[in-house]
Amino acid sequence: MNFIFELFITLKKQVSLCILIVANLFFYSATVCAQQKTNPDSIREKMQWFADAKLGIFIHWGIYSVNGIDESWSFHNKKISYENYMKQIKGFTASRYNPEEWADLIKETGARYAVITTKHHDGVALWPTKQHHFNVVENSPAKRDVLKPFYEALDKRGIKRGAYFSLIDWSHPDYPGFLKDSSRYKVADNPQKWQRFQHFFQSQIDEVNKAYKPDLWWFDGDWEHSADEWQAEKVRKQILNIHPGAIINGRLQGYGDYDTPEQNFPVSRPKFNWWELCMTTNNNWGFHPDDNNYKTPFEVISIFVDAVSNGGNLLLDIGPKEDGTIPAEQVHILKELGKWNKKNGEAIFGTLPGLPQGHFYGPTTLSKDSTVIYLFLPGQTAGNIMLKGLVNTIKDAQVVGTDVHLKPKVVGKISWSSVPGLVFINVPEKDKDPYMTVIKLQLDKPVQLYRGQGGLN
Ligand code: FHN
Fold first, then answer.
1. How far is the CA of 285 from the centre of ligand 1 (A)?
2. In sequence order, what are the residues at sequence separation of 6 or more whose Cβ sits closer than 8 angstroms to the Cβ of residue 229?
3. Structure pTM?
4. Where, residue-wise, is CATH 2.60.40.1180 in the chain?
5. Does the beta carbon of 262 lie inside 6 Å of ligand 1?
6. What is the pLDDT of residues 258-273, one digit of tens each?
7. Which of 148, 337, 377, 413 is 20 to 30 A removed from 62 (C-alpha atoms)?
C-alpha cells in the first residue's frame, strides 16, 4: 500500500511540476502574445524606451504661475474673471528661467523624459505661434521662445522631449467652450466655425511638431469633443508623418499608445500594455504658493515604486513660478527621489513588472531576463521578510546599493511535495534605506512560481 502511495505522490509531483512550468510559460507568453496581437511590432518597438523609462517629469508652466492660481480652470470655473485671468500675461517674465538648470535637476532625478505644457486650456502658447493667437513671445515680458532652449538642454542630457498640448482652447474665438456655464456655439449649429478651429489647432500641432519634434505627445482635454470632431486619426497621422518614432498618450481619443491614469493610484494591475500615472507633488499642477500639502519623498518613492512594480511609469509634476524658478519644496522632493534612484535604479529602470500579488507583501520588479527579483520593502521596514511560491534556488541575496549580502532561509519545504517552501530573509536595521530598502535576489534561472493552493501536490 505504501509503494502505491509513494508512486501516486511521485507521479503527482511530476504532473504538478509540469503544470507549474507550463503555467509560467503561459503567464509570460500570454502577456507577450497579447501585445503582439494588439500592438504591431512597430509600436512595441517605439514604445520600448517608454517602457524602460519608468520616470518622467511633468512641468505645468504658464501665465497662471503669475498669480499662483488654477491653470485655466480658475476662469473657466469663474473663480476669477477671464479678463483678470488674462492680465497675468503681463506678469509672465521668465526673468530667472534657466533651462540648463531645469534639465540638470530633471537629469538628477533619474527621469528619462520631461513633458512641458506647450499650451494649456487657456490658449497661451509658450512658443512663437504663427496662428495669431496668445503666446508668451509676443504678449508677455518674457519675449522669448521658452521651449527651444529647454528641449535643447534635454537633448544634451539624453532626456526625451515631451510636449503637453491642450486640444481645448477656451480663449480661441472659434472654440465652442469658454466658461463652465456658457459656450460660444454648438458644433452642429456652426460647422464652418468648428472647421476653422480644427485648422487652427492642427496648424499649431504642426508648428510644434516641425519646430521641436517631440518624442512624446501628451494631449489633454479630449473629453470636450468626439474623436471625429477632433479628427483624431488625422492628427495622429499628421504627427507620425513628420516624426514616425513619436509616441502619443491616450488622450487623443482612441488614437493614443498608452493610458494616463491621473492622481489616482491603481490598486489592481492595469490591463494596458503601457500606462503612466501623472501626479502632482502637492495638490496643484501649476505654481500655488498657498498649497503646502506636499507629499514627502517617502510617499513619492512609494507611489513611484508601486506604479513601476505594476508595469507603469510615473510622470511627476512640478509647477515653476512665473520667473522660471522652481519652488524649493519641489526641488527637495526631486533631489531626494534622485538620490534614491541613484542607489536603487537597477531595480527600477529597464525592469519588467514584478510578481503577481500574493508572493510578497510589497512591490517587486524583475530583471529583463527574469533571473533577478527585486523586493521593495514597504513602509521603511527592516527585519524578517517572507517570499512565497518561489520554485527557484536563490543564488545570492543582496541589499541593493550596498555590498551587504544576506542569507535566505527556506522554511517548510516537504521532501515529497513539489510545493516550494517559504523564503525568509532577515534585513538588518543597520542596512535599511532611509526611504525604501531593496533586496536583489539572484536566481538559478528565469523565475518559476508556484501559484497553487498548497495541499499534497
Ligand atoms: O484639465 C487638465 C488639468 O489642468 C491638468 O493639466 C491635468 C494634468 O494631467 N490634465 C487635465 C485634467 O485631467
1. 8
2. 187, 194
3. 0.91
4. 352-443
5. yes
6. 999 999 888 888 888 9
7. 337
